[in-house]
Amino acid sequence: MNPFSKFLIYFLAVARQQSIRKAAEELRIAGSAINRHILLGEQQIQTPLFERLPSGMRLTAAGELLYACARRWMKDFDDLSRQIDDLKGIRRGQVNLLAPEALARAFLPQLVARMKEHHPGVVLNVSIQDNRRIYERLLAGEGDLALVLDPEDMRDVVVARRISFPLGFVCLPGHPLTQHASVRLAQCVDYPMIIPEQPLALSSVFAKLVTAGRATPVVAARANNVQMIRSLVAEGIGICFLSYLDVMSEVTKGELAFVPLSGSAMPHLTLALVYDRTRQLSRTTHQVGRIVESIMSEGRELAAPPVGEGKGDLSVQ
After folding, report:
1. Which InterPro entries match (predicted)?
2. Taking 60 as the threshold, does the pLDDT of residue 307 lie above it?
């Protein structure tokens, strides 16, 4: 049940999208209906909520105030619904999880499968987001939990658990590099290599490593997409520099091999489970959190030594 008026729902969509057309696509209704309700709302409160610009819709000062209040109302109602569900002791519910695209191939399918096995009545709504915007979406009330890569310290966000994935070289099984438990960059530069390019975060990391090591890789190809890089390695074009998280699925299946890069200053990729400190988590959300933590604990055994626990607590007393 959505207790909010059509006007408020339409208003929030237009404010998010900064466009009536895009809001109509999001809500799957006619743009004329959205525009009509927005105009009626502005007439009712006797002030414009949007500036109509050639580039789209921009909130006025009054619109900004209403937008902040509306998001708070929806967030509070969400929390109320969860508390009522907990009082009922229901075994059904929905949990909204925000996550980066890097988890879409291995981690998230495993999570959904376990949820269906252990809590078949719970619907897990997974929203793939740009990793840089996940905190913003979480604090806007669009997610109950979030998985974020290389988390930043934020006052209103609690890190419940984190896991560190090593960086290293990916190659075909049987490649000479697989004879080593770990390798240094100097051992790899003579092999044909697929170089990560921007906007991949690993591009700048790899460039710094090459500069620091005064190395000159043998370039077989360049790519700015992890899937493309994996495919090129699978075709035998060369080796590549990625994180274990990027190839966990292929390594588990024996399709590719991963050899971590050694060195005391070697960076790692960190994955964290986080939630908004100001929200009361429902029992259903705790169930999801425990399964996420279980998968992360298993991944830790395969990936890298722990980097420390957060101060959050997802346990249900």
Report:
1. HTH-type_LysR_regulators (IPR050950), LysR_HTH_N (IPR000847), LysR_subst-bd (IPR005119), WH-like_DNA-bd_sf (IPR036388), WH_DNA-bd_sf (IPR036390)
2. no
Q: Which residue has the higher pLDDT, 301 or 219?
A: 219
Question: CA angle 302-307-311, nearest 5°?
Answer: 120
User: What would the pLDDT profile of 138-170 be if each residue is shown by its tens digit?
Assistant: 988 889 999 998 888 888 899 998 888 889 999
Average the pLDDT over 241-248 and give the result.
89
CA atoms within 13 A on the CB side of 135: 14
- Please count the other Cβ atoms lying within 10 Å of the Cβ belonging to residue 224: 13
Residue 149 φ then ψ, to 5°? -90, 140
The span from the CA of 297 to the CA of 133, in Å, is 25
- Give the span between the Cα atoms of 18 and 50, in whole angstroms: 9
Average pLDDT score over residue span 181-189:
91
Decide: helix, strand or coil at residue 72. Answer: helix
How far the first Cα of the chain sits from its last, in Å, is 29
The pLDDT-based confidence of 112 (bands split at 50, 70, 90) is: very high
CA 183 to chain centre: 30
Domains in the chain, CATH or no CATH each: 6-72 (1.10.10.10), 91-164+269-303 (3.40.190.10), 166-267 (3.40.190.10)
What crossing angle do the helices spanning 61-88 and 283-303 adopt, rounded to 10°? Answer: 90
> Cβ(237)–Cβ(100) under 8 Å?
no
Q: Which of 78, 99, 7 is nearest to 284 (CA)?
A: 78
**Is 0.70 topped by the overall pTM?**
no
198 with 223: CB under 8 angstroms?
Answer: no
Report residue 284's pLDDT band, with 50, 70 and 90 as the boundaries.
confident
How many other CB atoms are found less than 10 A from the CB of residue 91? 13
Q: Which helix (H) or strand (E) holds 123?
A: strand 122-129
